[in-house]
Amino acid sequence: MSDSGIEITAGLVRELLREQHPDLAGLPVREVAGGWGNQMWRLGDELAVRMPRMESVSDLLRKECRWLPVLAPRLPLPVPTPVRVGVPSARFPRPWSVTAWVHGEPLDTASISRGDHAADALAGFLRALHAEAPADAPASSDRGGHPKDCTDGFEHFLRSIAPGGLGPAADAPAVRAVWDDAVAAPAWEGPLVWVHGDLHPANVVVSDGTLSGVIDFDALFAGDPAWDLAAAWLLLPAGVGPRFFAAYGRADEATIRRARGLAAMKSLFLVLMGQNGEQGLPGGKPAWGPAGRAALARVLTPGPDRPTRA
């Protein structure tokens, strides 16, 4: 059910397709589990329909439709490129889109077994994405800046996790030390680059044990690449971080420190969403708890790509 009181059903999807894209209306429609601001429907074997549940998501969908077709041709991994746009109507008062379907299983319900391959794939993807953004690229009101601007969010996530919820390999002082080091790191001084902004296990897919696609670009913005480089800890298995940063090749020490702190904050968010899911709270994601604790353990493990100044 959307916040407009309209139930998003397969029947509604078919009606909208018949009205606006009749050549696609005969394809099978199947609901896709999950999603946050959008309800997803598989359309045939190669397409998907993306329907905003909330009015606040409409502008994010428009942003994807504007910019992802521009970026997709240079990206080395499949992404959900919009191929059609649905306009608001009497049946559904928001824009919606038809996108390419990205084959694979979300990482929050799967795993990476080919770590070196995944490290190279992620590094190649981010090297291609992190080009200088144009002057009219979207900004973000809550992401993209220096970690020091996100301290309230970090503290909220850390305080909200139940005692012992960080896992056996983590404790609050160690996590806060990583965050403090990121806050103390110099700011990004390069040009603003394209940033996915929300790389976590539910927003990438894997096939054959490795990274095979990146999805959900509604957070896309121009900013500090450290926001995406946090994915080295959030997505990749232990031990392949040095390979990732060597393949990426553009991250100085300050950027890695900021990225590590942002990875700590994002790991806390995953743990909190997992905790909420275990408690049956609305919006909770039970599968995200284990993913967040595993990522946090990687964040706290010293190594060549993990500065120990904290």
TrEMBL record:
Keywords: Transferase. It comes from the Bacteria. Pfam families: APH. The keyword Transferase applies. Coiled coil: none annotated. The keyword Transferase applies. Residues 29-262 form the Aminoglycoside phosphotransferase domain. InterPro entries: AGP_Transferase, Aminoglycoside_PTrfase, Kinase-like_dom_sf. One of its GO terms (molecular function) is transferase activity. This is Aminoglycoside phosphotransferase family protein. It comes from Streptomyces liangshanensis.
